[in-house]
Amino acid sequence: MKVGLDVGGTKVHAVAVGDDNTIVAEARLATRTGAEGVVASIVDAITQVVPDGFVASSIGIGIPGQIVPGTARVQHAVNLGITDLDLGAALAPFTAAPIRIENDVKAATLGAHALRGGGDAMAYLNIGTGVAAGLMLYGSLHRGGHGIAGEIGHMSIDPAGPRCRCGQFGCIEALCGGGAVAERWSRPGALPIRDIYDAADLGDAEALALRAGIAQGIAAAVRLLVLSNDVDAVVIGGGVTAVGDRLFTDVRAIFEREAELSPFLRSLRFDDRMEPLPAASPAAALGAALVGVAELPEGALAHG
Amino acid sequence: MKVGLDVGGTKVHAVAVGDDNTIVAEARLATRTGAEGVVASIVDAITQVVPDGFVASSIGIGIPGQIVPGTARVQHAVNLGITDLDLGAALAPFTAAPIRIENDVKAATLGAHALRGGGDAMAYLNIGTGVAAGLMLYGSLHRGGHGIAGEIGHMSIDPAGPRCRCGQFGCIEALCGGGAVAERWSRPGALPIRDIYDAADLGDAEALALRAGIAQGIAAAVRLLVLSNDVDAVVIGGGVTAVGDRLFTDVRAIFEREAELSPFLRSLRFDDRMEPLPAASPAAALGAALVGVAELPEGALAHG
């Protein structure tokens, strides 16, 4: 029984997966932050999906940070309050199963690809606090020479756009990343993205501008992934997409306007290639379970 | 003896290549346009590189147009005055060798990769009349599901930029494609791009703006290829690069400014990854020779 965990800033989603990759148990619980909190959350989640008397054959973890190549160590997981943590070593006292870890977006890419039944060239576009994509080409995750393939959030698409934390202006992430958008929104609230969509529905000018920027950023990301790699599908998930239909309707409206202006863009069928990841999709946790049993690419290695 | 031909709008470059892929003969001649002219130019060029008494074992042709998948037929080769031409059938009376054809940018990508000794993930960025890239990933040309991978010329990077023939504003091609830039240059001349660089050197405001746009477009294309695919090298060629050092110096200045503003961009080492293709490089013709003996991917098939 393979276990996969998607460790997010707010929740841990754990799945237990059978030999045929079907999900046999599932749990969601709140993430406690900091190194100790994250380790405790992971142990609790594993306990919830592995029945008494069973043991996990492998554990895979998707986590929003940088994975030190060839280790089960994560760095700069800012949303989790982790600077540097050897997850393999920290979890070893609790389980005998081999542990592999992977960046959360890359794990979700593997999971989304498996849920689509494998096959075609595919991108997974994550619109969360930050924005990044994963690419499945020829049945494997395309990492590139330095593991940065898919870091398209920092492509500038408007020199007159908002300043990005990376130093550029008008990056895709500055326009549609949840962190950047929430920072520019002037009103407090626990769910700033949802508040922006609601205020925009009521005609609020500031909210309308931010909402238009989100759609502009996502449309550009889809365009970039199709023009560069001709992927057959761009699956889109991440925290910002929790606002649902309103977001995708805005993006579709951009594609429709473009298609009217440009036979070339119409021929690329961006709308057909865009696939919203359903709410509560197990893609990220399932992908983590697949990481757990993967051959050992750079960045995903058994501990010990 | 393999023969490769790069059929450009102004010249045909032919090479004969030995079994170890070394170039044993080379010829350059002016392209005659129109279907008959192109066929005659190709036949003349083959004659010049294949010694009397020898026969070509294969002929590969790189041509700036759309290749009908699975055929040796080219369409919409606008610069050659060709709407639709079955090159395989047209050349059959002149040679018994199998003929394969490929889009010129894709052929040049194969050639540039071979000249670098194979290996790493690489992009070839062609800044000609139009702008497009080819991607070598895992030792093969990455075409994507519909053969459009690398069409990054039509990524918009500035909504306030010049209108592109594709209908968008501020496309990479609208900024740095030779055709688009020459159209916006108000003064007549046989070598508009060179004239623009010369006028800019003298402080001409219109020329300075166009020249800055060329550098902006090329820098964005390099950024896009690195962020999306993490290629180790972006080899840059094409007609516009004939202005040489001045162009690459401008692009390097952009990368230097960026690196000062952004540790993230500095870490990507765009400057190190950018490799100007030397003037008179045989990359395109050599790549065409390799197309001639390639396994049969979509878009490159023996005639007959």
From TrEMBL, chains A, B:
Signal peptide as annotated in the record: none
Protein name: ROK family protein
Pfam families: ROK
Family as reported in the entry's similarity comment: Belongs to the ROK (NagC/XylR) family.
Matches recorded under InterPro entries: ATPase_NBD, ROK
